[in-house]
Every structure is written in C-alpha cells, then in structure tokens.
From TrEMBL:
<dbReference type="InterPro" id="IPR029063">
    <property type="entry name" value="SAM-dependent_MTases_sf"/>
</dbReference>
<dbReference type="InterPro" id="IPR001678">
    <property type="entry name" value="MeTrfase_RsmB-F_NOP2_dom"/>
</dbReference>
<dbReference type="GO" id="GO:0003723">
    <property type="term" value="F:RNA binding"/>
</dbReference>
<keyword id="KW-0694">RNA-binding</keyword>
<feature type="compositionally biased region" description="Basic and acidic residues">
    <location>
        <begin position="23"/>
        <end position="34"/>
    </location>
</feature>
<feature type="compositionally biased region" description="Basic and acidic residues">
    <location>
        <begin position="45"/>
        <end position="72"/>
    </location>
</feature>
<dbReference type="GO" id="GO:0008173">
    <property type="term" value="F:RNA methyltransferase activity"/>
</dbReference>
<keyword id="KW-0489">Methyltransferase</keyword>
<keyword id="KW-0949">S-adenosyl-L-methionine</keyword>
<feature type="binding site">
    <location>
        <position position="402"/>
    </location>
    <ligand>
        <name>S-adenosyl-L-methionine</name>
    </ligand>
</feature>
<dbReference type="InterPro" id="IPR023267">
    <property type="entry name" value="RCMT"/>
</dbReference>
<feature type="binding site">
    <location>
        <position position="355"/>
    </location>
    <ligand>
        <name>S-adenosyl-L-methionine</name>
    </ligand>
</feature>
<keyword id="KW-0808">Transferase</keyword>
<comment type="similarity">
    <text>Belongs to the class I-like SAM-binding methyltransferase superfamily. RsmB/NOP family.</text>
</comment>
<feature type="domain" description="SAM-dependent MTase RsmB/NOP-type">
    <location>
        <begin position="239"/>
        <end position="519"/>
    </location>
</feature>
<dbReference type="Pfam" id="PF22458">
    <property type="entry name" value="RsmF-B_ferredox"/>
</dbReference>
<feature type="compositionally biased region" description="Basic and acidic residues">
    <location>
        <begin position="80"/>
        <end position="91"/>
    </location>
</feature>
Amino acid sequence: MAAASAAKAVATTAAATVVPYGSERREGQGRPDSRSSFGGGGQRGEGRGDYRGGDRGSYGSERREGQGRPDSRPAFGGPRSEHRGGDREQAPQKPQFNRPRQSHGAMRIDQVQRVLGEILQWTYPADASLSHWMRQHPNLGARDRSEVAEAVYDVLRHLRRYRQYGESGVGPASRRLAILGLNATLGAEALQEGMDAAEAEWLKRVSRIDLATLPRAVRGSIPDWLDERLGAMDSPETLIEALNRQASLDLRVNPLKAERDEMLAELQQSAGRYEPVAMPYSPWGIRMEGRPAVNRWPQFESGSIEVQDEGSQLLALLVAPRRGEMVIDFCAGAGGKTLLLGALMRSTGRLYAFDVSAARLARAKPRFARSGLSNVVPVAIDSENDARVKRLAGKAQRVLVDAPCSGIGTLRRNPDLKWRQHPEALAELAQLQERILNSAARCVAPGGRLVYATCSLLAEENEAQADRFLASHPDFERVDAAEILAARCETLKLEGPYVQLRPDVHGTDGFFAAVFERKKKSAATEPSEGIAAEAAAAQDAAAPADEAVEEEIGVKDPV
C-alpha cells in the first residue's frame, strides 16, 4: 500500500481514537490481544500487537527489562515549560485573537516533532506514547489527529533512512524527521509555509536521492541484525518492502453468531466505503481498507465480529478443536485466539485460557461473554511451571502455545518493534519459548495435538525451536502443518512440514506454526524423561474436563 493510502487508513483510526494506531496490537495483527507475556516477546496478529507476549504495555507501565532507555530516564522530558526567575507574576498576555496565526504546515511540523521527541526515547511502545500525547491534547480535531499519527508512523517505518537524510540538514534532528514524515504523507506543498529556505532546499535535495543507491538495510530502514536474518530468507527485498507497508484491517466472524457471507453482505451495505471483501484463506475472515471505528459497530458490540489478522485465524485450523474436548490456550493473553477455539468447540467441553497476567485475563472476560461462549475457564498462572499446569498432565486433547516472541512478523502494525527489539534478547526469548513449550507438552494426552506458533519470521524462534523440541521429545511426532491447511484452504500454497506465512506472499502478518502429535501408549517409542510417568497416570485422556479437574486446579466456573 502506498504512503498516501497508508495515510488515509491511519487517519480514520486517529480520528475515532478507537483502536490505537498500530494495534488491532493487537489480535491477529501483532498479537496484539492474544499473545501472552510470559516475560517478553513481541506482538501478535490480534487487534493489538503487544510485545510478545500479551499487552505491549500501556503508557506509564514498567518498562520491560532490556528494552528501551533506562527506567530512570523521564518519558516525556519533564514539564512542558518551566517558571524562570523568582517572581511568579508574568506580563499580561495579549488577547489570543491578536496573535499571528501559525500556518498549517508549521503547526503540523511542531506537533509531529513533539510526538517523536517522546516516542524516540523508546521508554514506551509507540502506540502508547501517541495515545498519551493525544489525551494531553483533547482539542485536536479528527484531521489533526490523523495527520499527526500517519506522519509519526511513516517516520517509524523509515527511521533509519530518514536519519541518514537528516545528517545533512539543519536544526533539531526530530524536526528534520517530522518534515520527512509529513512530506511523505501530506506532500511538500503543504509544508512550504512551515519551513525556512534552508529546510526547503534540504528537503528538495534529499527527495532526489535514488533509493537504489542505498544499502538494503538503509533503503528498507531495518537494523543490521535484522537485515542479516531477513537477508537469509527467500526474496528478502519484497519481504522488507511488505513489512514497511501498513496492514489492512482484518475481521473475523464469530461462527456461533453469524455466517461469513451474510455478514459480508451486511458490511458491504453499511460500510461499503471501507471495501469489505472475503479473505482468500480464512473461512471466517473479512478484509477491509482503512481504520473504521469497528468497536462502535453493532456487529462488534453483539459479538458477531472481532478484529483478528488472517494468519492468526488460520492457527485455529491447525489446532482443530472438537466438541467436548479439553483444550488449553497456553498463552491466552486477552483471548483473541481463545474466542475462535471456543466457537469451533460450539461452546462445549472445557477451554482453559492460561496466562501469567491476571489483568489481561480480566480484560478478556467481557469479550468471552460478548461472544456467547460458556466453556472458557481463565486461569492466571505464576509461570509455565505453575502447579495447576502440572495437574493437567496428559489430560488435554489440544494445546496451543502462541509463544512470546520478537514480534518481527507484525512490523506492518508495530514498526517501532524493530527499533525496540535487540538481538541480545533473542537468546533469552528462545530459552523462554523452550521452557513454555516443554511445560505445555506435559498437558497433551496420548494421541493429542500440540501446536507451537509465533508471530516471528526468525529461524531461531521458529524452525530451530520446533526441531529442538522434536529431538528432545521422542514421544511426539511431527505432523505436516502445511497439509492440514491445504486441506481447508485450497488456494494457500505452502511447503511443509511447518507453516510460515509472510506479508509479501500471503498478505498476512508473519506467522510460524508447527504441529506435533503425542504418540499413543501402544507406540513402541519410549517417552521422553519427565513425561513418561505423567502420561501413564492419565487413565482416561480422552475424557473432557469435569468438576473434579476444575476443583483440583483451583478455578471457578467457566465464563
């Protein structure tokens, strides 16, 4: 999508202040909601884009360790102004109507510069900082908010290249960045009255630079460590370009309350200007352009639709839950994927939503109620080794691990992640992912299915993690995930055994998934150490969860 289209898309969001720009951050689009925190990570594809796992963190929350500037650094540089001198009295101000009116270009440059000054401290996620700034300026109109937001996110997408351009300019660096972002979204003509002669000449000069002459990492505005990893993949140029485009708005129909074709016809009638179309792969998906105020629509308020990236929706096809089963969403976050799993179970059996954040699960409860589900059991756990997790050893027919990760696959929605994430953190994330996956595997019944997923494109979080799990768990066997999806999505072309979705190929966020099945007891293979006793103790692995199990793990009635 071109920069101008991206500008229009963001404009609607900022104006409505409904879904924070760059979120959906969260479901299906950055994992925004569904992705559990378990101590770190990046964003998933669901209405929000959280750092994975879970919420990326609201403004004022504690900064995650190893990310951004030290906590001691002020987030917004102190008060807007300081009283100078000892006398509190100030000279009378002239009536405001006598002051010279600031031009539109000058005003917009100043606003974007101020927002960037806050965001580029990297103390908080960009959407949280932008929302905070918007709340501090309640008198801004819809146009103001949209133009500021789209310029800010353009700068975040192209920050490295813009910074290189800015080295030849004059004035504060944040002002040069603001001019470049607004030039891309509004055009140079709109800025003429806001720039001096030197700035205007500098802008003309850098606008003539041939992008083909720049190194790939600068042209695509990604850090060197990420360029090295993406460069090892097929067609890295097109992948990087796709990650720098704004994502579409993906909706999911609730199978308990609506049919996709009927909902599509309804939205084409009531929201036709957003060009709703059926998604190419998901049987429940509807794709739209722009950022309408979906959460004010009656279809959303009734629980008939949710915001969720198509890639996130496809994970439910890999889990393939059935009626009456015990299913565990191990990193449930705010419940994006949980909602679809519960609907596919027709609200029967037991669906445990595990997460280390009780606050996230509490925020998910209204979503569960709105969706019509009655089989979801939210469980706030201390860690992946919580005793309540261990008590479900060998009992679940389906377990989904939507693991905390770097969130690199969600850069379309959360472009600041590439600047907030660091290669040193990847090793720690890999260890966390391995611990979570090993713990979740204990819950899988013989013959049951384990699905490991991330919203990352990086091999160390994806294929390497899946291969390592398989090598250390001989009681599990790999199932070709690509074949599972091909059986449901004939137009989806993938090469197994794993699933890797890409924005440049599939039009989704970057998602990875691996599917494993636990061998039945009759298999000749010896179970892996630490799991054999637990598997043998599961007398009736196929039985659904009952009151005794719920009492054992200390949970209340389903939502």
